[in-house]
Amino acid sequence: xxxxxxxxxxxxxxxxxxxxxxxxxxxxxxxxxxxxxxxxxxxxxxxxxxxxxxxxxxxxxxxxxxxxxxxxxxxxxxxxxxxxxxxxxxxxxxxxxxxxxxxxxxxxxxxxxxxxxxxxxxxxxxxxxxxxxxxxxxxxxxxxxxxxxxxxxxxxxxxxxxxxxxxxxxxxxxxxxxxxxxxxxxxxxxxxxxxxxxxxxxxxxxxxxxxxxxxxxxxxxxxxxxxxxxxxxxxxxx
Length: 238
Known about the structure:
By secondary structure, the protein is mainly alpha-helical. The protein has six helices and no strands. Helix 3 crosses helix 6 (182-237), helix 4 packs antiparallel against helix 5 and helix 4 runs antiparallel to helix 6 (182-237). The radius of gyration is 45 Å and the shape is elongated. The two termini are 78 Å apart.
């Protein structure tokens, strides 16, 4: 008898169901040689090992986030309730009305600041041109009286240009042919600056108030949506 090429024998046990599955797979490969099939599968087959650690980790993180979200939502709900109680707000329409009023006050303050800044800019320009006009007035009068205007202009061109530009700008501001009173403009500028500074502080408080009420309304809307969700789920199940 010829010497066997494969001298080592391996044995293993299977159930009846497993034996049936093996035979079915052999039929798919069109073979009836059980030894050859099992040897081929043992040597050339492969095992798929799935790593579920990332999935498990994400699941744990998801559960942790859900728990954190629940606690966070409860805290936000408690803060919202305390705020509404402290401000004597018991109806949704009342909250909306207060929010609208806060927004309106903030918008009015912003409009007033814009008007103040515009007037301050106008006054600043007027004072600048009045100062330039008065400082160059003497030189310009000499220029007007000079017999050789070109020669005088060459030595004083900058002052004359500044004077004429200031005079042109101030023409529209003249009242009865007179320039605006510099001292009165300076006093008005100082008064409006103080008013603007106070209004800026008030506007800053209003902006914070608007942000606070916006957040409270968002929390209330979120709580109301969560309260309606179980009812929608029950309707869907029906």
